[in-house]
Amino acid sequence: MSAAVQPVLADARDVSRAHRPFPIGRIALWAIVVGVFAQAFWAIAHNKNFEWHVVAQWFTADSILRGLGVTLGLTVVSMVIGTAIGLLLAMGRLSEDPLLRSLSALYIWFFRGTPLLVQLLFWYNMSTLFPTISIGIPFGPTFASWPTNDVITPLTAAIAGLSLNEAAYMAEIIRGGLLSVDRGQYETADAFGMTRWRALRRIIIPQAMRSIVPPSGNQLISMIKATSLVSVIAMGDLLYSAQAVYNRTFEVIPLLMVAVLWYLLVTSILNVGQSAIERYYARGERGAASRTPAPTVAGETL
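== Amino acid ABC transporter permease ==
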């Protein structure tokens, strides 16, 4: 080893033997934070106005569990439909066809620019605007028609409103993930003669998932909470079920706490699942990092 490198290594060894100062400031900050949270928890747990015995009574009631099932069902169906439509919209936004780009951008602009609650109300009151729904040739013969009230029920209005709104957000998330993949991957797929859809399925989308999963998980959690808006169109979700109970018993705060606790429990489980999926798609990146050689000085490994 050269003489010029030896003093550097000696300094590094001296620094490695140095002791860090006792983190009294950090310990004091932790003590303050723990004390505040403990005080808040104690105040909530011992506040009789929350009526925790009523919360325990209704937490697993049949009506509440049925509402929870509706909430979870709406979330799954709306996310699946919204993600499928969002993928098509993202491809349209990235298309070289100006018509597809314009139509996709117009869709995203409209559904992201109007409140979800307003969209749900429009779907629910669609019969006011269009008494019948018809299938046929534009400005030509009609093949079939149905009364709008028979087609647009509270369930179909909720699914349509949530799915179409979610598609606009998922389109931008997927588009951002696709743009994060190096352009060379597309060129490699073309060089191997892959079609655009095959390249997306086998090469591009798996790499883009590292960028798509975190915001998609956030959207899923937002969807769980957004389903509470369907209570305004008489859809029996979790919040609507809690409201139906406290309208009879006048125990407003305890029933709202039941809904809050269920929302927190479901979103906590989803957070765990999201973290597991993120680790799965990041495993290749960790493997590449572990294979990176350690830095060296003058041919010596540090």
